[in-house]
Design a protein that fits this description.
The protein is α/β, with parallel strands linked by helices. 36% of the residues lie in helices and 21% in strands. It has helices spanning 6-11, 16-32, 47-56, 80-86, 98-111, 145-156, 170-177; strands at 68-72, 90-94, 116-118, 136-140, 161-166, 181-189, 197-206. A seven-stranded mixed sheet has the order 3-2-1-4-5-7-6, with helices on both faces. β6 (181-189) and β7 form a beta hairpin. The radius of gyration is 16 Å and the shape is globular. The protein starts with 5 loop residues before the first helix and ends with a strand.
Length: 207
Amino acid sequence: MNPIPQETWDKLAVSRESVARLEVLAGLVAQWQPAINLISPATLPDLWTRHILDSAQLLPLIHKNIKAIADLGSGGGFPSLVLAAIQLATVHFYESNTKKTAFLLEALRQMGVKGIVHRERLELDRPPKAMPEVQLVTARAFAPLDQLLAYAHPFMAAGATALFHKGQDVDAELAEAAKSWKITAVKHLSMTEAKSVILEVKEASPC
């Protein structure tokens, strides 16, 4: 059952139809989790806050003119399936694990939304084999910032910006990434985790 108050969804401009799709997603995660480690088992009781709302908080930072999003290391579908459920843009899912790509495809089918799943290893396929035109790159719990920027660079070089979920070590990650990258970024405080941020990377180029 969805424990998030309706006023929270209203503030994020998430329709009731989208919330219904998120309820389907929550049920699928609970169903598939015993067989596939989609999320940390300890966070399953807090799925709605720790994963669904944590993903949906990107919405105020996503510009209305964005038509396509590339989500790197989609895994269990956060934030990618949440963004797809809200249907603000076409979502391209990048995930190398066969079982997780099967989950992503089934979730899209049962939620009744469209998305494109690319089964690729980003650390091997640079640039990615499938290079759609996207305006935004997302990633959550996937890789340190310097690696993320390497994966995201083909998209960002073509004009995309990025929104990355980052934890309390974000400053250390920024310092490490600055050794190899010229970065223009803004930190937005997370609405679900006190020490976490959404890192908005507006520009990143190799030093």
